[in-house]
Amino acid sequence: MSRDASRRRGRIVTTLQPFFDSEIAVRGAGYFRRGAVELIEGTDRGVSARVNGSAAYNTGLWCEGSSYKQAVYLWCDCPFVFRYNQPCKHLWAVIQLRRVLKTKN
Asked: Poorest-confidence range of 8-12, 75-79, 80-84?
């Protein structure tokens, strides 16, 4: 894999990381490492998954647009997102899944 291709594949993490509190990101990465993220559907545009913790939450990430201008949509049905309107650990876990899936392709 070329260096440029590797950079592009990690771009989603780099782009979204500033929107996540560092503790949330650490906890989400832990969910991913423990295998708590169950892929429901994956395409070249995004993923939907179930993240299993104290409860199971439906979570996903979808990208639209071109390589020059792209919109990224994130969703999770956990109470943290509804209560604080901030990205949660489940979303960070799904971003890690997306990164790994893109690296394999």
From this structure: 8-12
| C-alpha separations of 100 from 47, 52, 96 in Å | 11, 18, 6
Kindly report the pTM of this predicted structure.
0.84
**pLDDT of residue 87 exceeding 50:** yes
CATH class (in words) of the domain with range 3-104: alpha beta
Write out pLDDT tens, residues 2-20.
Answer: 444 444 446 778 889 999 9
**Measured between alpha carbons, how far is 73 from 83 in angstroms, rounded to an integer?**
18
Domain locations in the chain? 3-104
